[in-house]
Amino acid sequence: MLRHRLIHPKINEVLGRAGHHGKILIADGNYPASSAIGPNAELVSLNLMPGVVTCTQVLQALLSAIPIEAANTMMYETSGPYALHEDPPVWAQYRQTIKEAGLSVPLQPIEKWEFYKAVATADHVLTIQTADQQRFANLLLSIGVRMD
Length: 148
What we know:
Elements: H1 9-17, E1 23-27, E2 42-45, H2 55-65, E3 68-74, H3 89-100, E4 107-110, H4 112-119, E5 124-129, E6 139-143
Parallel strand pairs: 1-5, 2-5, 3-4
Antiparallel strand pairs: 1-6, 3-6
Helix pairs in contact: 2-3
């Protein structure tokens, strides 16, 4: 019987095979998950309808199941038609969720095209596609070492 909150069988299977430094992408509803994926990664689609499920909900489940050592966001654009001039609201949700899990892992933004390159590595083991409609909600987690 599982003791954590994550019950999705395929996600648990992939996480069970993953090791230290494995990368998990929680993708928002706009992320091109079918084409921007690592060579060893599996894709799990949880996008039922707009807004269901969200990236924050997936983060909550994952944090109950695995240790993380890094959390990278896709940096928002500061000029042009999609420009933001402050952190996207979803980032505050991530910070709060990480804090509530008892962790002190900071969000580390990566420039958009570098983010895609970080996802395309051999360490990328899983993309979880959500239906989150929030802008710049993509989150790339690096699995840490279990200490207990």
